[in-house]
Predict the structure.
Amino acid sequence: MKQKHEEFLNSPFTFQKIEERLFTTRDDETLTVNPDTGEYYTMRKVSKDKKILHDSLTYTKLFVDSAKRLMSLSPSSLKVLVYGMVTAKPISLSVILNPSDVCLFCEISVSSYNNAIYELINSKIIAKKLGSSIEFWFDPNVFFNGNRLRVCK
């Protein structure tokens, strides 16, 4: 018999390996100071036509430190995790894992979905969100969509 998992109003996960460091400018930047406020700004050189390269593919960061934890997961749990990674909204700490959508996308059964959710919770990769059966907090040290600094401040 599977145990009932605790539900959380706020994410139970804490950010790891976020630290202060001295700012350094890149080769194409110049550091300037606003004489009125003393605030620092950087100016960046751009080409004459003002065109820059942009990568338009959508991505989610997978953090290398979590690789060992992920390698021990069952195939169904890995599929559900990948689904969560590709559907996580930018700058969010939670993800919607609607069983019918996940099962269709991952080509798994409802029982495989339930087992995967149970394993991901026990592995402390996700946690149940209070008041929802389909929304889960995820550990932002495993994966994240966007810049974690915008959320952890």
About this structure: Helices lie at 67-71, 75-87, 99-106, 110-122, 149-152. The longest helix spans residues 75-87.
